[in-house]
Write a structure and sequence with these properties.
Helix content is about 65%, strand content about 10%. It is an alpha/beta fold. The protein folds into 2 domains: about 110 residues, no CATH class; about 80 residues, no CATH class.
């Protein structure tokens, strides 16, 4: 059974990210107000609901991993580095981008944060770390994540969305390296290699 993603605004959490941005010297980008964020959440949620069921179902189907929680809270703040746990996203200029980043973080959630799934996939991860022992931890983790995301993007949204996703991460060397591996080895091969080792 799929969880429902519930979108939340926390003033305390938002202020934390706002102050963090100041600490790191992010001054050239206007930080959205609370009312702007709340308005954005309503629009982004409406967009997400159109695809929620099929994305969550497909991720569970192709990995063999189950969603364990009935609801997953997704906090939306003005600006942040997106993270999977606690699931946190920022305001994006394009709502399609919000959907694609949310999907990326939910793949992390399914593979690592949903109870028992990390243990169930231990052999798959161990094999991956061994196979890519010369790569960074971030790169290794994102090889199956990118492969699964490519599958979802091609199945439901098309080549343009896939291209946008890849291009959004090329400035980050570890993420780009993971995409290079996915392109070289084939996303379906990587998915099969990973899921074949998941404990049934």
């Amino acid at each position: 059974m799929n969880p429902k993603i519930t979108f939340k605004y926390s003033r305390i959490y938002d202020e934390h990210w706002k102050e963090l941005g100041k600490f790191y010297g992010v001054k050239d980008v206007k930080y959205p107000s609370e009312s702007e964020i709340r308005s954005y959440i309503k629009k982004a949620e409406k967009e997400w609901r159109k695809s929620e069921g099929k994305i969550l179902t497909e991720l569970s189907r192709i990995t063999g991993l189950k969603w364990k929680e009935k609801t997953i809270s997704c906090y939306v703040v003005g600006r942040c580095i997106p993270i999977s746990d606690p699931l946190t996203l920022k305001v994006y200029d394009k709502r399609e981008r919000f959907i694609d980043v949310l999907t990326h973080e939910l793949i992390h959630q399914l593979m690592a944060s949903q109870e028992g799934n990390l243990k169930k996939a231990k052999k798959a991860w161990d094999h991956l770390y061994k196979e890519y022992k010369n790569e960074s931890f971030t790169t290794v983790v994102h090889v199956p994540v990118h492969a699964l995301h490519k599958h979802v993007l091609l199945k439901f949204f098309g080549e343009k969305r896939l291209k946008d996703e890849v291009e959004s991460l090329i400035m980050f060397p570890d993420y780009k390296r993971a995409w290079d591996i996915v392109e070289k080895e084939g996303y379906l091969n990587i998915i099969k290699k990973f899921t074949d080792k998941i404990k049934k």
